[in-house]
Amino acid sequence: MEHRSQAESALGGAAYGMLFVLGVVMGVVGGFTHSDPASQTGPVPVPAIGWVLALLVVCLGAGRLMRSRLAAFVTALGWLLVTMPFALKLGAGDLVIADGPPGYVYLYGGLVAAVASYLLSPTSRGGSWLLHGYPQKNSM
């Protein structure tokens, strides 16, 4: 079992906290811009597809850089906790993610991207680059 100092634990917690905030920000901005009519190209919801790809890249990048599936999960969780309430219909009939192709692509494509980024992220064997740096290559 690896023992970490308090500074390393705090740095790791701060990094995961910032990844969660990044997911929340992506959920808020993506929720309001996934069906932008100015960017719509015919029946293809281009902005929604772009947000799904962005979520995949950010979550997968977080998982690879932190060398843990937890990083991808935390980022996707931030996105998910914002996106799901946006899909609920309020009493006045308002909702952010509406029915239709852009909403479905953004919501279900984002869920697929979150699961895919979790599964494609490495398991946490080597430790984070943030806490330990990149390993030195031994020159013989």
**How far from one another are the termini?**
30 Å
Continuous helix count: 5
Strand content: under 5%
Question: Based on the structure, what is the oligomeric state of the protein chains?
Answer: single chain
Task: Evaluate the radius of gyration.
Answer: 18 Å
Helix content: 55-70%
Give the low-confidence spans: none
Number of E-type strands = 0
Q: Helix and strand succession?
A: HHHHH
Q: Characterize the main sheet.
A: none
User: What shape does the CA trace take?
Assistant: elongated
The helix-and-strand class reads: mainly alpha
Mean pLDDT across the residues is 84
Topology of this structure?
Blueprint: H1 6-33, H2 46-66, H3 69-86, H4 101-120, H5 129-132
Helix pairs in contact: 1-2, 1-3, 2-3, 2-4, 3-4
Structure description:
With 140 residues, the protein is mostly helical. It contains 5 helices and no strands. The protein has helices spanning 6-33, 46-66, 69-86, 101-120, 129-132. Helix 2 (46-66) packs parallel to helix 4 (101-120). The radius of gyration is 18 Å and the shape is elongated. The chain starts with 5 loop residues before the first helix and ends in an 8-residue tail after the last helix.
